[in-house]
Amino acid sequence: MRSDSGGRRPYRLRRAGRAGAGEWIAALAAPAAGPRLVVLTGAAGLGRSTVLADAEARLAERGVPTVRVSITRTDRQYPGSVASRLRAALAERRHAVVFLDDVQWIDDASLAELAQDPPTTVVCACRTPLPEAAEGLRSAFAALRGERTVEVLALRPADRAETAVLLTGLLRARPAGELAETLRRATRGVPALLEAAIAGYREAGSLRVVDRHAYLLPPEQLPRLPAEHAALAGIRTLGDTVWPVAKAIAILAPLLSGGGVPLVAEATGLAEDQVRAALHALWSEGLIHRVSLRFRLPVLAWLLQSSADPSERRRIAQVAIDAVWEGGIVGSDPRFLPEQLVQAGRPADPERAGAELLARGREAMLGDAYYAARWLRAAAELLTDPGRQAEAMFLHAAACNLALQSEPSARAAATALSAADRFTPELLLELEVTRLAGLRGMGDVRTMDRIAGEDWRSVPGGPANQVVTRAAALVLTDRWPEAADFLDETRDIWLEGNAASVAFGLLFGPAARALQGDLAGWERSLARPELRPMLAGERNRVPHVQARARILLLFGELGRADALLAAHGQSARELPPSDLALHAALSGDWDRALDLARLTLATGAALAFPPAHTGICRMMAHLLTARGRFTRAREILANGRLDQPVQTQLLDIAEAAVEYLLGAVGRARRLLVAGLAHAAEQDVVLGTEDLWLWLLEWELIHGSAGEAARCTAELGRLTTQLDNGRARHNHLLARAVTEGDASAAAEAVGVARDRGQPSEIADTLFMLARHGHGDAKQLAEAYDLFGQLDALVPRARLRVIMQARGVSVPDDRVTAAEQERLLASLVSEGLTNREVATVLRVSENGVEGRLNRLFQRTGYRSRVELATAILTGDYPA
């Protein structure tokens, strides 16, 4: 509480967010509170009008009469206009609480009249900082205050948590990665601008939602909105000259520190005094800093930049280029000059511009591939020297590939290949493989089939390039054995070709044989003497090593992948996100695995590296299923089949698990059989060790012992063929559960422990427990491991087994909370009561009873409310 000098009544200041502000104002403005002046302050866009409307509605519910007068900027031009509207309103409701919205625009005559005969209680919403035209409002407030107690509520911007909640509501998905923090900083937590930013990014096509998490992708354009949008309309109303000046300073900001009026005048074609007047208007509205001329809210600058039409952008860009090249002005943003060179189209000195863009693009390729691709494309269009133009074209295609831009990558490589005489055979082959990877990412299987069929014979660069290009097309269209056989038949051609043909031949051939079971040959292929020249430099060595680690991770060989990386001076930390996601899942870091997998799917990072994309989808579905996210798992699997149907037996495994747990046991078996048939048709073994084990358990429970024995025999055969730890482990597990072999059970547990994958250890102990093996200590170990993984579904099912075998479940309170959290997750996924009952192993009536208790305890009234609360994080499921 504070008090002015002179004995005036005290005033109280409170700062708060929007939540609860309406109720706070309604309580203060109620007649029982006595005469009041309630002032709601806050920056434009914080929601002052929304809070006033909420407070007014609450008073109306309590029978308190109210009148509301909304004030606009034009009211200052009509003395007494606001007072006249207020008198008319009060004539009908004499003792009403008066609400004045946007009081900063009230005319002086109305203010004077209001101060002479003020209503009992006045609630004002006032923008801060005050516009220059409203400075007299301070003294007028003092007169209006009189003997009233003054209550001031200063709306504060949304903090990190509030921003995340606001964005979740706007996106109907959780903001992922740095999205929430990026937009909070750009908007300074102003809700209206958060809404504008999301609308602008949607318009630009820069948002993607994966597994109900929203990602902001690198946009070719900034968020864009029509000039009439409310976020920009306020600037347009400041005058005809303010709008072009605002766009110019938004673009030229890195060059304007400490001045810049002449530069802005040249960019806009306005006189300098007009520019100064426009800048003064922007500053007096609190939109820009007075010295640097930067917008206080970065998102406004972004929206203004994207609202400039092409001719404006070219003119401003040329002015900026001249200022740097001729005026010697050094900008504060290293991207600024190359971006202006791109925007200028055909600058005054195209050769110099092309050389600058080539140099900047080459430097940025590894750290800023997205911008490198833009700059190198422009360089290729501007340069006239054939050699430098060829270099720009090649680097542009490579940068597009690094930036995960499939269609631009394929298009850039095709453009470069149209000038084949400018490139060496090695570079031509790299361009061909880049083009194919881009086509794979686009899903253009038809073109790749043509290349694999006949078009490979016309590939430039000689016979070695031709046969390797065909092999690449076969691999990328999921025809692995055919690729391996073809490379074996043409070995003399590609081994005697060029360094690139040798490197790719020793990549695609061994990779195809690995999927047929030859993992040892896949690892040994790195040591081939023919490959050493290509692996001498880091540029080629790193992707070759990582490609081999990727296949090992897909087979579940975590230890071998780590050993391979270490042997070549690398570590898992250096893997791309798609491979790192698989590594994290096998290592037991499921939260990180899911985060990395969502990012991979959002960016399409694995689309050009089959079957990595399929493996990511399988892994995500497995983890989500274990956590009770069945619907989300189904969505991931469906999208996986749609985006890239490569090695789909991996998806069959995960989908069979979903269907089985939900009670569709017949469909689960059909998926397992289909997966095995697909693998046999393709002559690959990837994932079959898990398919046979799942089918074995199905036969034990729903089929016949004879069929289960056949599955065990197939796993034995596979162990000999594949020779990896996962296959051996599964065969031992099969023998334990079909033959009751205690020594095989102990050995299976030992193999799992040696492999060091928490989920595999827990799954092993769980499967043995389902079939009567394992002691109380092993059950408790599996239960604890599932808890560490937050694997709610197997943990709940294991509790049933533990209780049946008289093994105590630790901490009843934790168990009760976990059961409720799992129930909430299952319900929020849209499962029926029958499906929930199947997952939890209880009756449908039991589910209904649990659900009623959940609603009573939490206060949620429906499944929809519960699902919304889980999405926004209000309910921590």
State the shape: flat
Tally of helical runs: 46
- Separation of the first and last Cα atoms: 42 Å
Structural class: mainly alpha
Give the % helix: 55-70%
Rg over CA atoms, rounded to whole Å, is: 34 Å
Largest sheet: 6 strands, parallel
Average pLDDT, rounded to a whole number, is 90
Low-confidence spans: 1-8
What is the percentage of strand-forming residues? Answer: 5-15%
Q: What order do the strands of the largest sheet run in, or round the barrel if closed? A: 1-6-2-5-4-3
E-strand count: 9
Protein name: LuxR C-terminal-related transcriptional regulator
InterPro entries: AAA+_ATPase, P-loop_NTPase, Sig_transdc_resp-reg_C-effctor, Tscrpt_reg_LuxR_C, WH-like_DNA-bd_sf
Organism: Amycolatopsis cynarae
Write the layout of secondary structure elements.
Elements lengths: L10 E6 L4 H9 L6 E7 L5 H14 L4 E5 L10 H12 L4 E5 L6 H9 L4 E7 L9 H9 L3 E7 L4 H12 L2 E2 L3 H9 L3 H14 L2 E4 L2 E4 L13 H7 L5 H11 L8 H8 L3 H13 L13 H10 L2 H16 L10 H8 L6 H15 L4 H14 L3 H17 L3 H12 L7 H18 L2 H9 L9 H14 L3 H10 L1 H5 L3 H17 L3 H6 L7 H4 L2 H17 L3 H10 L9 H11 L2 H14 L8 H15 L3 H14 L5 H13 L3 H18 L5 H15 L2 H18 L2 H15 L2 H14 L2 H13 L5 H14 L2 H13 L7 H17 L4 H8 L3 H15 L4 H10 L5
Parallel strand pairs: 1-6, 2-5, 2-6, 3-4, 4-5, 7-9
Antiparallel strand pairs: 8-9
Helix pairs in contact: 1-2, 3-4, 4-5, 6-7, 6-8, 10-11, 10-12, 10-13, 11-12, 11-14, 14-15, 15-17, 16-17, 16-18, 17-18, 18-19, 18-20, 19-20, 20-22, 21-22, 22-23, 22-25, 23-25, 25-28, 28-29, 28-30, 30-31, 30-32, 31-32, 32-33, 32-34, 33-34, 34-35, 34-36, 35-36, 36-37, 36-38, 37-38, 38-39, 39-40, ...
